[in-house]
Design brief:
6 helices
């Protein structure tokens, strides 16, 4: 029986994976050491600036910063998707770095199966949290 050689990644692909892992790691490191209650020097949410109502992802950057510091309660208070986002980003860094170092793809089928459910779960979590956050705002505006 003939052995099939392993599929190797092109040098460009390995370099890109290593760069993505490195840049993402630097970004998370910066988020870890930023002021978790004001990680950006400006307001990013155009939706909130225009409407005064937070968008579905408002608070996610602060939640991520608190999650990276291990402050789970503060992370959850800003946005419930902060902790899962931190876990997914760290896993992505490790996976990309492993593939770059190994020179071969790792778990392509698993990655393809996980991508859509993880993104869908994050979007659903953000939307449910958003509804729970804006219902009191809308009801207080209706009473005023």
């Amino acid at each position: 029986m003939m052995r099939v050689p392993p599929r190797l990644l092109a040098v460009d692909r390995r370099r890109a994976l290593a760069q993505h892992a490195g840049l993402l790691a630097l970004g998370l490191l910066a988020a870890r050491f930023a002021n978790p209650d004001r990680p950006l020097p400006f307001d990013v949410c155009g939706f909130k600036i225009l409407t005064g109502v937070p968008c579905p992802t408002c608070g996610l950057t602060r939640a991520l910063c608190h999650a990276l510091r291990g402050d789970w309660a503060a992370s959850l208070s800003y946005h419930p998707a902060g902790i899962p986002l931190a876990a997914c980003l760290i896993a992505w860094i490790l996976w990309s770095a492993f593939e770059a170092a190994r020179g071969r793809p790792f778990g392509d089928a698993l990655r393809a199966r996980l991508a859509t459910p993880l993104l869908s779960a994050g979007a659903a979590m953000s939307f449910v949290f958003w509804i729970a956050r804006i219902v009191p705002l809308i009801s207080s505006l209706a009473r005023a």
